[in-house]
Amino acid sequence: MNAIAIVFRKELTEILRDRRTLMAIGLAALATPIILYVIAQVTTKTATQSYTIGYSGDVPAGLDILFNATGMKLERVADPAAAAKRQVDIGLVFSNSGIDEYYDPTRQSAQVADVRLQTILSKYDAAKVAAALQQKGVDPSVLNPLPVTQHPLSSPTQAASNSFLSFFLPYILITMSLTGGLSAALDSSAGERERRTLESLLLTPAPRSQILIGKILAVTTISLTAAIAAIVSMLFALSRIQFGERAGEVFQVSLSPLATVVMVWLAILLAAAFSCLTITLGTLARNFRQGQAYATPLYFITIFPASIILFIPDFSPNVGYYLIPILNAVLVLRDAIVHDTVSWSSLAVTSASLIVTGALCFFAALRLFTREALLVRS
Amino acid sequence: MSQTAVKVGRLEKSLQTNKVLRGISFEANAGEIFGLLGPNGAGKTTTLRVICTLLAPDSGSVEVLGYDTRTAPQEVRRRVGVVTAEFGVYPRLSARENIAYFAELSGVMDGELDRKVDAVIERLDMASFAKQRAESLSSGQKQKVAIARAIVHDPPVLMFDEPTSNLDVLASREIRAFMVESKGRGKCVIFSTHVLHDAERLCDRVTIIHQGRVVASGSTAEVRGKYQDLEDSFLALVEAAK
């Protein structure tokens, strides 16, 4: 057996006997469904939430019916402006000249209620105007000279589920590729110095490059396992948890075969690149704790690219953006999930970028691993 | 005449800005215990690290059984076993797994792995704790694991760097007995220590290093010279070197 296989087997044995790594993988598999369940509950609650309108004066005929039908509860109050500060979500004063609206924009419930109110009032106004025109013998369609008929090319429910996956899947994939193997990476690098086993290891005739490759392969295996475990548990949970219904359609979340293949390929590249990077940082550190301090900024790297997709869902970058590691994986995965398509040039650039990143980290780690300072500093 | 196992010639080495070795020369033979003596910071550990190829010499030469440490480092490592005071072990592996790991990395083939590991476990009387995880072992037991992994590939040169400094009396005595036994097996044993009493009892020949230079070299009796013991001789030599 060559040194790579010997080191790989030994590192894997040690990692699998380490409770920290097993707990990280286990928690990832358990935490994802729990988080999704909480999100589902909040989503359902928000969709069925009713709001209270405190009012004075006389409610125009027919408007009360619209309010009741859209979950807006009417409650007569003496002073709607005062009530809108705390007691109700919105205060309305109905008078002959129109409606005075009072609401506190710092309250989220007031903001949502305001949006609903504006929608109801615009529909009410349109209906009243149409009725008045019809009474005078005018076709109400003159108010709408360019009527639009929508023809969605895909199911709006499917689009909603895809946009949900396009944020969560890259986020979980990247986070677990990093954190799943972090403890193992630091243990097999900084841990060697901390335990005082490094000198004995380097004294063996095994080439240092092979020792390093064996360690990286073991950490990559664990990172990949953690990422896949988290994603499988997420998809399983999504198939079981209902996020309410939209226009009679069940909110179903699924991953196409293309997106699955792209996800697994990117998971391998990310796990390998992160393993090289974290082992490099661990080799710089004198002990496990110092290694953790060095690795802390990496958490921001995992959050930032996924956040771009959340805040700029239609972000359409040129091919240069696919050179940026991590962000490129998020973008490719987003396209595969949302549009069920992959630009092969983008995938090629992304793959090359991640492979080069991993290779650079590997050579940095190898250089550190062969430096005399590594032992002298020990 | 005994075969020269380790040959160090005019060795110089700096660590960062500190010149640690300033032209060290000595030879250690097979079938002897060779003492590398000196106070803390004299350069003993650096010398051993250069011999076993962990550090590269700045100038001078080091050969182990005819192999140059610069041009054939892997051949040198195959022929050297090193035991230090820092007997770090892999805590989640058993004592036996620790030994087997180093045996495999040292080139012990699959067919003879079990036999060699079992032999070293028996030789060091480790059978009672061989299957225990290393994290639960005592200091003495861990030191035995460290020795076992250093000798499992049966190297002709053994180097002990302050091997007893973290051990109790009983464990220290076992280490000394092991060095004597290895000498009897024809090994070249290099014993680095600042405990001169140990060196006087064990070593056939010694070299005393002070501030990176050799201040005395020869048989233990020659270096002791007119003084009552090696310690008095050592103090006089160090004083004269100032």
Q: Uncertain spans of chain B, ≥5 residues at pLDDT below 50?
A: none
User: Biggest interface: chains and residue counts?
Assistant: A-B, 26 and 34 residues
Q: Which strand order do you get reading across the main beta sheet of chain A?
A: 2-1-3-4
Question: What count of helical segments of chain B does DSSP give?
Answer: 9
Distance between the termini of chain B: 36 Å
Point out poorly predicted stretches of chain A. none
Mean pLDDT of chain A: 85
The shape of chain B is globular
Task: Give a brief description.
The complex is a heterodimer of chains A (378) and B (242). With 378 residues, chain A is of the alpha/beta class. Chain A has helices at 3-16, 19-48, 63-69, 80-83, 108-135, 156-194, 198-202, 208-240, 257-284, 288-295, 298-311, 327-338, 344-369, 372-377, and strands at residues 51-56, 72-76, 90-95, 98-102, 245-246, 249-250.
Can you tag this structure with a few keywords?
heterodimer; A: 378 residues; four-stranded mixed β-sheet; two-stranded antiparallel ribbon; 14 helices; B: alpha/beta; six-stranded mixed β-sheet; four-stranded antiparallel β-sheet; 10 strands; 28% strand
Description:
The complex is a heterodimer of chains A (378) and B (242). With 378 residues, chain A is α/β, with parallel strands linked by helices. Chain A is 67% helix and 7% strand. In chain A, the strands form 2 sheets. Chain A has a 4-stranded mixed β-sheet with strand order 2-1-3-4. In chain A, helix 8 crosses helix 13 and helix 9 packs antiparallel against helix 12. The longest helix of chain A is centred in the middle third of the chain and has 39 residues. Chain A is elongated, with a radius of gyration of 29 Å. Chain A starts with a helix and ends with a helix. Chain B has 242 residues and is α/β, with parallel strands linked by helices. Chain B contains 9 helices and 10 strands.
